[in-house]
Amino acid sequence: MLGCVRPSDPLTALCAAALAVSLLGAVPARGDVSGPAVTSTETEAKVPARVVSMNLCTDQLLLALADPDQIVSLSHFATDPAMSVRWKQAQAYPANYGRAEALSLLKPDLVLADTWSNPDTLRMLRHLGIRVAQLPVGTSPDEIRARITQAGALLGHPDRAARMIKAFDARLAAIKRPKPGLRAAVIGPGGYGYGPHTLDGQILSMAGIANVVSGPGLDYGGRIPLEDLVMDHPDLLIGAGAQEGMGTSRAQAVLNHPVLRALPRVSGLRDARWSCGDPAVLGAVSELAALGRKIQKKRN
């Protein structure tokens, strides 16, 4: 059954059976799997009392915008300091693993999901009459503002969302950036470079630093041959992954290739602030911009 954990677990089997019985009466006729529609009027009128988040980045917005008693459960990533900026706050809430049968037992009146959440899980939840909202991708400043606005409306706190956006814009405008001309690359396991349309690429852009990983076919990144990277000689090489240096795979070992030693490289820069498109990302932008100014100062 989609979304279920080990079939040998008696509790899971019971949950799965209950969900299956519910689905018998919930599956619409003639193969319609779109689930019940939620009108814009309903979205505005319903202030949810029991909200579940099944994604790390919706966790962050839920924690920032909702009343504490609105939150029923967060994803299991929410308490991981390497990924979640609000991990301490998240410890007050039960964790979920994004499985439909477990989420349905929480009796939520709203489930927050992301663009990349499991579509089968979302379809099951909608079949059960549970309201599901998928927030759009948030990488650029405009997209981040749109996510905040939508989350605030869904949670019944548009004024909080507006204040968050105002603070976001003020903080973004106040960042002191290096002079134009500085170039950097964010490289992950296997030599994968992060393009300008990724969150990593947008952090570079907001910090006033040009992205070496750009050009045709690289909007969202791609594998960058080490030879090309060395020839481009960026002013700064940033290792991708909050747990950089802890990998044991050959893909991770690429980051330690001797040929990269000639490039100015920084370790430990990417942390939980690089995980999601929300106001916390500005901490990463500010730190990167300060590093860029430091590099330029040393050259002068």
Automatic annotation (TrEMBL):
Residues 1-31 form the signal peptide. It holds the Pfam family Peripla_BP_2. Keywords: Signal. The keyword Membrane does not apply. Residues 50-300 form the Fe/B12 periplasmic-binding domain. The keyword Secreted does not apply. InterPro entries: ABC_Transporter_SBP, ABC_transptr_periplasmic_BD. PANTHER family: MOLYBDATE-BINDING PROTEIN MOLA, VITAMIN B12-BINDING PROTEIN. This is Cobalamin ABC transporter substrate-binding protein.
